[in-house]
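Re: [ENG-882] Designed sequences occasionally contain unexpected residues at chain ends

Forwarding the minimal case from QA. Structure tokens:
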């Protein structure tokens, strides 16, 4: 994940051989992308942001060509299964120029998967697609993941990353700020809040509770306490005791966890302030 212009597409284009790196080295499956480009490109599938398809090509011919381009033997049954998984079977013999934008996106995905890559790059594949395609795409992604395919996705839909990703990386201004297992990231960088609803509203927080850095809602009915989930002592027990001593009656208690979006926004914001 990263804001526009962060370098996501440039990084993917470099790994896939579309952009020549000016320094450094990249390996895929142990192969160098420059010195052993044939091996690396055979391992990689790419679904680009742009709809790069021949307007007058027939869908099945486009996919067959892509498979043959990487030296894979013909396999009509496998390609038919791929088209079926992407709800493209009824468009199999249609020219690309007769397809909607969403259907063209499906063809791009089929092209990327035709040679059975072990690493699949999806560069913002959900941008501008309908809900049905998104559902089909993520079902296929899950199946590929179960089959051992490494999938690297860039997305602006943070809820997608939160739903399907195993690991999350945040890039800003060409630098990878963090990469970690999603749950570790949310636990280590995400904060948790204890929401305390009061029986009787108050106009200000008692001075005896200043050490807890509480926030009072505008209507005076709720106190919010932010704590570190990784700390040995959260301070909740002491807070509740202090609230009782201050004569505050508790009506209800709830907790909430920072979302992946909160973490992403904070990381990029802090990086931009440097």
């Amino acid at each position: 994940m990263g804001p526009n212009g962060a370098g996501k597409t440039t990084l993917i284009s470099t790994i896939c051989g579309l952009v020549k790196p000016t320094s450094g080295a990249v390996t895929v499956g142990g192969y160098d992308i420059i010195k052993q480009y044939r091996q690396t490109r055979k391992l990689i599938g790419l679904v680009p942001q742009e709809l790069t398809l021949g307007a007058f090509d027939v869908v099945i011919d486009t996919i067959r060509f892509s498979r043959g381009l990487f030296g894979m033997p013909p396999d009509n049954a496998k390609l038919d299964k791929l088209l079926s998984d992407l709800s493209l079977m009824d468009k199999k013999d249609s020219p690309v120029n007769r397809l909607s934008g969403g259907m063209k996106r499906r063809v791009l995905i089929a092209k990327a998967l035709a040679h059975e890559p072990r690493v699949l790059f999806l560069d913002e594949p959900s941008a501008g697609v309908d809900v049905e395609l998104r559902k089909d795409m993520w079902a296929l992604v899950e199946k590929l993941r179960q089959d051992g395919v490494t999938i690297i996705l860039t997305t602006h839909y943070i809820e997608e990353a939160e739903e399907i990703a195993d690991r999350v990386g945040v890039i800003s201004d060409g630098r990878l700020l963090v990469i970690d297992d999603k749950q570790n990231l949310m636990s280590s960088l995400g904060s948790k809040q204890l929401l305390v609803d009061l029986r009787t509203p108050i106009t200000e927080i008692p001075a005896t509770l200043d050490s807890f850095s509480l926030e009072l809602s505008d209507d005076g009915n709720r106190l919010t306490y932010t704590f570190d989930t990784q700390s040995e002592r959260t301070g909740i027990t002491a807070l509740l005791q202090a609230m009782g001593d201050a004569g505050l009656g508790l009506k209800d208690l709830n907790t909430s966890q920072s979302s992946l979006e909160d973490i992403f926004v904070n990381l990029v914001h802090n990086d931009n302030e440097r």
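QA comment: On inspection the terminal residues look reasonable. The chain has ten helices and eleven strands. Proposing we downgrade this to a documentation issue.
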